[in-house]
């Protein structure tokens, strides 16, 4: 699809004459970009500034070999804008940043640019954990929640004529900005004033996974403490709730599909009432995060009325023991109850997210998952596991734990498949794994310093295959077993738990 096709499908696109135009670039294709509430929120925020407009651009769809990169709203080359602002969700999108800068004809490395070039800014979910690999490419990185800082930065940059030396001088001592002078020391994440909540989508389009869905934030952050998660309370200061009335009042008239977004939406104290308000208005509903321990007969019934066909929950550890390691409060009995509720309300599939390769995991944990699968399959005819290898992230208690190993994760996957087969569950319990190889690359970047970003650039230029990344990490000296990597012992895990309690008390 070209930009005209995309624009034609949209409702809510913002057009504005303005002295200052910012290119707002998403380093993944359109479908992912327009499913990102954070990206849409920054689009809205920039447009709300006097004399400022934001024009979107994304990583072109696969197979689009057209040279150059233009914005959707104006068709102007991205490289001609005074500022290019990126929203980066996770590690593997860094290659998209390299690709879009290349297509925009902007030198990829910060050190190769001067005052003739746009100011390159990045923010987004990746900055909550480890933005260091973005540093070789960016002039400024906004760390954490960006609604207030992007306004401040655009205001300052405009006053400075988008001259990066002047911008650096003006923001040098302000919190929330990660600048080249900080080196590997990433500043603390920023949080916005609660008055700015909730984020709401601006544009609805049929060309995303969430086709024509109006997204609205129900809560920000999380009050739980899973040891692998960057959204945990000690990173983000806990969950901030959006009142039910504010959520419902913000839904535009005529909306047919509503997405309630947040790290732990079902922890909202009024979640059932909110979902009822949505579906009573004859609207479909979607929730970004269902917690198995929060599902009730009433809530699942409402979800079924609101168009749900698949009940998706996360358990994350393969066994009770592994779920305790990651401090996930989901237990086997919660999953069994989820299967019962899904069946009772006619939902076609129960999908459970799991991680393999969690520190301390053994074959016995996989065997326990096979045993649990028998119980789930006896209740619900269609169970699917979304299986992702565990990747340790910065700003979490499990930061620094090594990747389990591509071979080991694949072996565990084979063991699970064989176990399900032997139990006669083939066709009843489906296994949908994500690639262990790409998870390893994600791990190298999640744990890497800024040099890891240079390796992404090299690998991307060499073709972007797994072998290119492997070679590039070796050539740049990015080590998978650097000084930070270690397997925590049981005692260390207990100590981590105590530390967390003291942090959050
Ligand atoms: S994994 Fe989910 S429940 Fe656990 S801390 Fe993260 S957002 Fe909260």
Question: What would your notes on this structure say?
Answer:
The protein has 505 residues and is an alpha/beta fold. 36% of the residues lie in helices and 14% in strands. The protein has a six-stranded mixed sheet with strand order 2-1-3-4-5-6, sandwiched between helices. Helix 4 (94-103) packs across helix 16 (451-462), helix 9 (271-280) packs parallel to helix 10 and helix 14 (406-422) packs antiparallel against helix 15 (436-446). The longest helix is centred in the C-terminal third of the chain and has 17 residues, at 363-379. The radius of gyration is 23 Å and the shape is globular. It starts with a helix and ends with a helix. Bound molecules: iron/sulfur cluster (SF4). Iron/sulfur cluster is lined by residues 222, 224, 226, 229, 231-232, 263-264.
Oligomeric state of the chains in view: single chain
The CATH superfamily of the largest domain appears as tm_1862 like domain
Tell me which ligands are bound: iron/sulfur cluster
Got a strand count?
15
**Radius of gyration using CA atoms only:** 23 Å
Structural class: alpha/beta
Going by CATH, the architecture of the largest domain would be: Alpha-Beta Horseshoe
**What's the N-to-C terminus distance?**
52 Å
The proportion of residues forming helix, as a percent range, comes to 25-40%
The major β-sheet equals: 6 strands, mixed
Strand fraction equals 5-15%
Question: What is the number of helical segments per DSSP (H or I, 4+ residues)?
Answer: 18
For this structure, the CATH topology of the largest domain is pyruvate-formate lyase- activating enzyme
Strand order of the largest sheet: 2-1-3-4-5-6
Average pLDDT over all residues: 92
């Amino acid at each position: 699809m070209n930009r005209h096709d995309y624009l034609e499908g949209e409702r809510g696109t913002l057009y504005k004459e303005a002295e200052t135009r910012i290119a707002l670039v998403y380093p993944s294709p359109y479908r992912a970009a327009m499913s990102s509430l954070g990206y849409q929120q920054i689009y809205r925020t920039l447009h709300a500034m006097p004399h400022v407009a934001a024009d979107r651009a994304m990583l072109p769809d696969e197979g689009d070999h057209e040279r150059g990169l233009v914005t959707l709203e104006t068709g102007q080359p991205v490289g001609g804008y005074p500022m290019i602002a990126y929203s980066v969700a996770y590690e593997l999108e860094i290659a998209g940043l390299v690709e879009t800068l290349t297509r925009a004809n902007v030198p990829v490395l910060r050190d190769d640019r001067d005052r003739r070039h746009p100011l390159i800014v990045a923010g987004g979910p990746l900055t909550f954990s480890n933005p260091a690999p973005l540093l070789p490419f960016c002039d400024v990185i906004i760390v954490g929640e960006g609604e207030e800082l992007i306004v401040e930065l655009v205001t300052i940059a405009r006053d400075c004529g988008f001259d990066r030396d002047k911008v650096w001088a003006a923001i040098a001592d302000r919190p929330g900005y990660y600048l080249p002078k900080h080196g590997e020391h990433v500043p603390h994440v920023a949080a916005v004033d609660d008055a700015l909540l909730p984020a709401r989508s601006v544009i609805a389009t049929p060309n995303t996974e969430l086709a024509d869905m109006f997204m609205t934030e129900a809560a920000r952050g999380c009050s739980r403490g899973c040891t692998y998660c960057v959204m945990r309370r000690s990173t983000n200061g806990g969950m901030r709730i959006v009142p039910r009335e504010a959520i419902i009042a913000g839904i535009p008239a005529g909306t047919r599909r509503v997405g309630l977004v947040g790290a732990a939406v079902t922890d909202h104290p009024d979640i059932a009432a909110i979902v009822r308000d949505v579906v009573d208005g004859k609207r479909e509903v979607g929730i970004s995060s269902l917690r198995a321990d929060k599902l009730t007969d009433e809530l699942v019934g409402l979800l079924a009325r609101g168009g749900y066909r698949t009940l998706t929950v996360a358990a994350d550890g393969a066994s009770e023991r592994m779920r305790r390691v990651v401090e996930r409060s989901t237990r086997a009995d919660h999953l069994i109850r989820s299967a019962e509720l899904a069946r009772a309300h006619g939902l076609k599939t129960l999908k459970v997210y799991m991680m393999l390769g969690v520190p301390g995991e053994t074959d016995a944990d996989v065997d326990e998952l096979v045993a649990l699968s028998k119980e789930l399959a006896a209740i619900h005819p269609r169970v699917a596991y979304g299986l992702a290898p565990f990747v340790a992230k910065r700003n979490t208690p499990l930061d620094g734990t090594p990747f389990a190993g591509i071979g080991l994760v694949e072996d565990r996957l084979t063991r699970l498949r064989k176990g399900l087969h032997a139990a006669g569950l083939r066709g009843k319990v489906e296994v949908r794994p994500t690639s262990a190889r790409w998870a390893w690359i994600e791990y190298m970047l999640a744990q890497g310093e800024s040099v890891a970003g240079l390796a992404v650039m090299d690998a991307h230029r060499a073709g972007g295959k797994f072998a290119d990344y492997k070679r590039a990490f070796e050539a740049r000296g990015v080590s998978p077993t650097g000084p930070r990597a270690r397997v925590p012992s049981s005692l260390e895990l207990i100590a981590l738990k105590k530390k967390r309690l003291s942090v959050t008390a």
